[in-house]
Amino acid sequence: MKVDKKRQLFHWYMEGEQKAINIKTVPYMGIEPLKELVNKVLYDGGRVLYITGEMKENVLISQYMRNLGFSSISLHQDLEINEKESLVICDYFQALRIREQYDLVVYDDVNSFPIHKKPEMQHLIGFIFPRCRKVIAYSFETIFMGMDVLEVPMAGRSGFVSEPRVIETRLNLDEFVPTSVYEYLLWFVYEKKKVLLLTADKKVKRKVARFLSKVDESLESCIFDVDEIGTKTMKELVKDVEKPYIFITDDLDDYLDVETNFEIIIHGSDSTRYSYRELLFFCLRTGFYDEMNGEVIMLCQHTTRDMERTKELTRHFNKILWEEGFE
Q1: Helix (H, G, I), strand (E, B) or coil at 20
Q2: Please, which domain of life does this record's source organism belong to (predicted)?
């Protein structure tokens, strides 16, 4: 994060009149924009509540502070939350049981696949608001209306955010895959890409897998049902750079622990299960591990407002990146 924005964040915490601030950035940004402030608050004797959906073993702020030698950390207690430590890290539901006071609260909506909607976030922050001196909404969208917004461009992993391609069709998506999507799959296979094909449910998943295998026998050896092989096998398969794979799943997951960039096809993206929040994360997931961003294809019968919102957000982040550059 640029020096002037760091100064603005520190000034807000130490002298600013507003109790809340928005730090707006792309999904999977990491903790670069706020780690120094958290470190300062803790080493000055303050208390920090950090709310995140990250897996216990992967919480970035915990790793960062432990590497600095800081040990007063309570991390994702399963039952009663230990609020005696200076840095308390918990998930959404655990935060609803918070009782102590904090100098700084951070709601991290960036570093884990989004489970909770914006109104849920606002509800939780409203509950915690009286229990803290300052609060940061760290998200890809503005959470606090009427409060300052620090816009932080993406850093490092790739030069742009993948803007999704929308393919509309009149076909019954429960039974068929359009020719245009089939041609994308053939190209991905030819290029030895790893494909994540998401369907609305298990029934559709089975039908799509059968249809693809029947229409082109050459695809059959590439197609794997994630329910059948599990993520452990996925992790092993993607290590083979000489073979293409098409992983079909109905789980709404980013498979971030599978270390490869995916070409992502969202089959039935106009389903109510997909809000712009999940769709946007998929757009960033395609370029998570290296600079070779994959495609995001949204296959639907009609374009929804959530799909339009996703396109608007990806264009916005690319515009900010173009105007301000990497940080």
Answers
A1: strand
A2: Bacteria
Q: What is the DSSP string of 99-124?
A: -S-EEEEEEE-SSS---S-HHHHHHH
At residue 174, the pLDDT reads 83
Burial 45-79, CB ≥16 within 10 A → b, else e = ebbbbbbbbbeeeebbbbebbeeeebeebbbbeee
Mode of pairing for the β-strands spanning 245-249 and 165-168: unpaired
Query: Which residues share a beta bridge with 194?
Result: 245
Q: Which residues of the chain have pLDDT under 70?
A: 1-2, 77-79, 155-159, 325-327
* Bridge partner list, 108: 138
Q: What's residue 154's pLDDT?
A: 76
The CATH number for 165-324, chosen from 3.40.50.300, 2.60.40.10, 1.20.120.450, 3.65.10.10, is: 3.40.50.300
Cβ contacts of 272 within 8 Å, gap of 6 or more: none
pLDDT, residue 77, reads 64
Contact (Cβ atoms closer than 8 angstroms) between residue 41 and residue 48 = yes
Q: Are 196 and 262 in contact (CB under 8 A)?
A: yes
List pLDDT tens digits, range 85-110: 999 999 999 999 999 999 999 999 99
The model's pTM: 0.92
**Hey, which residues does 104 pair with through a beta bridge?**
48, 134
Spell out the CATH class of 3-151: alpha beta
pLDDT value, residue 156: 53
Spell out the residues 6+ positions from residue 103 whose beta carbon is closer than 8 angstroms to its own. Answer: 41, 46, 47, 48, 132, 133, 134
Residue with tokens 């308390």: 88
CA dihedral sign, ordered 113, 119, 120, 126: positive
- Residue 26: phi and psi, rounded to 5, are -85, 155
